[in-house]
């Protein structure tokens, strides 16, 4: 006969020999192993632990083990409180007969329970395994009590490494915390729950999962636990992000479009407001761009626009963001720069662009730009800011092009 292991905390040590003597009267064999934490014990292990030895990090594991909590003085209210935490039972610290009786009865209960439920569990497991979607169910203490083959295969763990385990036994702590909090919220509210979270399998691969869960109940109406199904939405979310990015990107030049600019300027101004900083904006328009299209064709005009974007990036700070607003007009958002600093950047862009020569149909081509500059005010004044910087750009155009003009508020 293979001995059953009894795990005990340090405060129980003085009673170990007396308990061994009591248990020698029964046919079952037991071995004893001291522990510092519940994390050292196997799922469903028989554990005798004094309440003072329980660590804060032990609490998520309590219901996944068969824990007898020893109290300095047994009290019904205190015992009930511990049972609500998920312990199997409680006893007074010096009530050796009660402790020994618990060990024997739990050993017998485990044997009976395993035999009686085997057939029912086999039927349920067959049904669950026929479903191709990962499914799991947990009790009211967040302990896995079952899962199907699809769940086991998805997370890369055999069922015996899942069933009767806490989520902290099978998932990294940073993810287990998310699942545990979601489980508790569902049990508190009842009903159903749908949310998205990352899942990492045993091989370290991470997926984006939509959890669909519901509470199930005991015959007396108390909450018994929850059942959940997992939908892998990794590919769907990837495609949605690609579509969203495409909707915010100019397909020709690869920089952000007006929609992206509207999002970026709002975020940038909020950060500037929180940090009491500045944000400036350049509006850039290519001088005589129509003549490039007329002379070389629209395909060469497209190449000129891409070349211009490259030149702008070379001349602005790394924190600057370029956006194509329409046609040959571009915005450059300059976080943390005031009007004087933005003017210096604008002059650098203006001087840099004609120094760069591109070739269109074997002919060298140089471009110049006109630039309007403004230091942005608050977000609710953006329309006024855009109006004034457009006026500054118009002034640059009307006064000879290839120049920088500043915009001011009244």
Automatic annotation (TrEMBL):
Gene assigned in the entry: ydaM_2
Record's protein name: diguanylate cyclase
Signal peptide as annotated in the record: none
Xref: SMART domains: GGDEF, PAS
Annotated NCBIfam families: GGDEF, sensory_box
UniProt-recorded Gene Ontology molecular function terms: diguanylate cyclase activity
PANTHER family in UniProt: BIFUNCTIONAL PERIPLASMIC SUBSTRATE BINDING PROTEIN_CYTOPLASMIC DIGUANYLATE CYCLASE, REGULATORY COMPONENTS OF SENSORY TRANSDUCTION SYSTEM
Record flagged with keyword Transferase: yes
Annotated source species: Marinomonas aquimarina
PROSITE patterns, alphabetized: GGDEF, PAC, PAS
Cofactor section: Mg(2+)
């Amino acid at each position: 006969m293979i001995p059953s292991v009894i795990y005990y905390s340090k405060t129980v040590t003085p009673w170990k020999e007396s308990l061994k003597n009591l248990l020698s009267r029964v046919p079952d064999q037991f071995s004893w192993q001291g522990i510092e934490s519940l994390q050292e014990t196997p799922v469903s292990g028989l554990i005798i632990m004094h309440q003072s030895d329980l660590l804060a990090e032990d609490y998520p594991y309590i219901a996944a083990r068969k824990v007898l909590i020893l109290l300095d003085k047994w009290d019904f209210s205190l015992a009930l409180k511990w049972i609500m935490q998920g312990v199997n039972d409680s006893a007074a610290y010096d009530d050796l007969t009660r402790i020994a009786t618990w060990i024997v009865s739990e050993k017998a209960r485990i044997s009976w329970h395993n035999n009686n439920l085997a057939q029912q569990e086999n039927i349920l497991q067959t049904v669950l395994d026929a479903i191709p979607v990962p499914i799991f169910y947990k009790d009211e203490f967040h302990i896995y009590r079952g899962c199907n083959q699809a769940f086991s295969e998805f997370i890369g763990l055999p069922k015996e490494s899942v069933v009767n385990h806490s989520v902290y036994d099978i998932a990294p702590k940073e993810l287990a915390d998310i699942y545990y909090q979601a489980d508790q919220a569902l049990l508190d509210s009842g009903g159903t729950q749908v949310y998205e979270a990352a899942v990492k399998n045993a091989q370290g691969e991470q997926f984006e999962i939509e959890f669909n869960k519901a509470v199930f109940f005991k015959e007396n109406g108390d909450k018994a636990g929850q059942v959940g199904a997992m939908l892998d939405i990794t590919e769907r979310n990837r495609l949605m992000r690609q579509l969203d990015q495409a909707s915010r990107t100019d397909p020709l030049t690869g920089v952000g479009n007006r929609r992206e600019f509207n999002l970026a300027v709002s975020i940038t101004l909020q950060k500037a407001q929180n940090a009491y900083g500045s944000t400036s904006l350049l509006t850039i328009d290519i001088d005589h761009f129509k003549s490039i299209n007329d002379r070389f064709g629209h395909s060469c005009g497209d190449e000129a626009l891409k070349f211009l974007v490259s030149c702008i990036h070379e001349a602005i700070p790394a924190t600057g963001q370029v956006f194509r607003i329409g046609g040959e007009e571009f915005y450059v958002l300059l976080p943390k720069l005031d009007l004087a600093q933005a003017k210096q950047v604008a002059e650098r862009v203006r001087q840099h662009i004609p120094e760069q020569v591109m070739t269109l149909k074997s002919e060298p081509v140089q471009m110049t730009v006109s630039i309007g500059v403004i230091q942005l005010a608050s977000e609710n004044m953006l329309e006024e800011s855009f109006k004034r910087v457009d006026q500054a750009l118009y002034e640059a155009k009307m006064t000879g092009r290839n120049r920088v003009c500043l915009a001011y508020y009244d």
